[in-house]
Amino acid sequence: MPPTLPQGDPVPDDGALPASAGGPTDRAFGVYLHVPFCTVRCGYCDFNTYTATELGGGASQDAYATTALAEVALAATVLDDAGVPARPVQTVFVGGGTPTVLPVGDLVRMLDGLRTTWGLAPGAEVTTEANPDSVTPQSLAALAAGGFTRVSFGMQSAVPHVLATLERTHDPRRIPDVVRWAREAGLAVSLDLIYGTPGESLDDWRTSVEAALATGVDHVSAYALVVEQGTRMAVQVRRGELTLPDEDDQAAKYELVDDLLTAAGLHWYEVSNWARTPADACRHNLAYWRGDDWWGIGPGAHSHVGGVRWWNVKHPRAYADRLAAGLSPAAGREVLDADTVELERVMLGVRLAEGLLVSDVPAAGRPAVASLVADGLLDARAAIRGTRDDGVREPRVVLTRRGRLLADAVVRALVG
């Protein structure tokens, strides 16, 4: 089952934000749009997704676009009433689930709703996730014609037995085709990979990375498999049917993907993400890591505006019912205090290749910088020669590759 939502504080039925969220801001504004439907549930997945069997006769995929647009209308009212300045949407990310199980017309209709409500900034990045077996040349062309600019394919692996363990249904031989179709439609393309699947060898992983590179994509995400409680794979591990790799295996696979992608001209810009140029980086995800504002549309979606974070009810039926009754679908929220903001700024900022100004590190953690450099976890050159955004030279905290492997330990040291 999908993970349990946090508790948080209650949210007014109308979704009204506290006064602290309003006022002038220079933060960018993005929209995440969650499509909670999949044709099958993969054994490792703990996302808030549902198959038709799991939903039964409840929430309808056919009505989903209309339901999501009801939350868009609510969002516009809530932001206006809170005095949050109207801003065009800089980035849109449609995730899931498998968004492309919906008709292209529904995806475009939801995007049109955002355009009508807030406007899209010039050059806005509009991404949808997709499974390789859920698109055609025609559907990708229709997405591009409807305003989408980017597609992120869940490739995961190029090795059949690894895909079988993950319970992925697509044929890996289809990957070059879908990348070509997307590019012919004018879409930027990212491929998502997973390493550390039980039974995956280092050679298997090399095969997958090389297959991704052979398509010529300009963006690759590579994530270590995390087996979450409540998933089918967690049960298989507990029963001894699957054996998870150890930390050394995970580290070797991270180093291999970094070596191969860097040699091919893709450079890391976040611990798990590589892009050919800065323009190829995922701007929507960068907005998360930099603490910008976003509204999350859909069941279980999380939002952040002006230091307030909230999350929607999890089940599609409950989500639809609340909106149909004119109520906010928010299930809980929290107002971030100064300590939490500081912690998250370090925790997220240090994961980026641009790093973090030493002056942004909590005072209690600054003495640790020198020892982290000595331990090879921070880049000494960046720590000495960093530059502020305004051109004034100031040291920065930037992870080495070894530091990327131990990023959590680095964060703990920096927050004192």
TrEMBL record:
<dbReference type="InterPro" id="IPR058240">
    <property type="entry name" value="rSAM_sf"/>
</dbReference>
<dbReference type="GO" id="GO:0006779">
    <property type="term" value="P:porphyrin-containing compound biosynthetic process"/>
</dbReference>
<feature type="region of interest" description="Disordered">
    <location>
        <begin position="1"/>
        <end position="20"/>
    </location>
</feature>
<protein>
    <recommendedName>
        <fullName>Heme chaperone HemW</fullName>
    </recommendedName>
</protein>
<dbReference type="InterPro" id="IPR034505">
    <property type="entry name" value="Coproporphyrinogen-III_oxidase"/>
</dbReference>
<keyword id="KW-0349">Heme</keyword>
<dbReference type="GO" id="GO:0046872">
    <property type="term" value="F:metal ion binding"/>
</dbReference>
<keyword id="KW-0963">Cytoplasm</keyword>
<keyword id="KW-0411">Iron-sulfur</keyword>
<dbReference type="Pfam" id="PF04055">
    <property type="entry name" value="Radical_SAM"/>
</dbReference>
<keyword id="KW-0408">Iron</keyword>
<feature type="domain" description="Radical SAM core">
    <location>
        <begin position="23"/>
        <end position="270"/>
    </location>
</feature>
<dbReference type="InterPro" id="IPR007197">
    <property type="entry name" value="rSAM"/>
</dbReference>
<dbReference type="InterPro" id="IPR006638">
    <property type="entry name" value="Elp3/MiaA/NifB-like_rSAM"/>
</dbReference>
<keyword id="KW-0479">Metal-binding</keyword>
<dbReference type="InterPro" id="IPR004559">
    <property type="entry name" value="HemW-like"/>
</dbReference>
<dbReference type="GO" id="GO:0051539">
    <property type="term" value="F:4 iron, 4 sulfur cluster binding"/>
</dbReference>
<keyword id="KW-0004">4Fe-4S</keyword>
<comment type="similarity">
    <text>Belongs to the anaerobic coproporphyrinogen-III oxidase family. HemW subfamily.</text>
</comment>
<dbReference type="GO" id="GO:0004109">
    <property type="term" value="F:coproporphyrinogen oxidase activity"/>
</dbReference>
<keyword id="KW-0143">Chaperone</keyword>
<comment type="function">
    <text>Probably acts as a heme chaperone, transferring heme to an unknown acceptor. Binds one molecule of heme per monomer, possibly covalently. Binds 1 [4Fe-4S] cluster. The cluster is coordinated with 3 cysteines and an exchangeable S-adenosyl-L-methionine.</text>
</comment>
<dbReference type="InterPro" id="IPR013785">
    <property type="entry name" value="Aldolase_TIM"/>
</dbReference>
<keyword id="KW-0949">S-adenosyl-L-methionine</keyword>
<dbReference type="GO" id="GO:0005737">
    <property type="term" value="C:cytoplasm"/>
</dbReference>
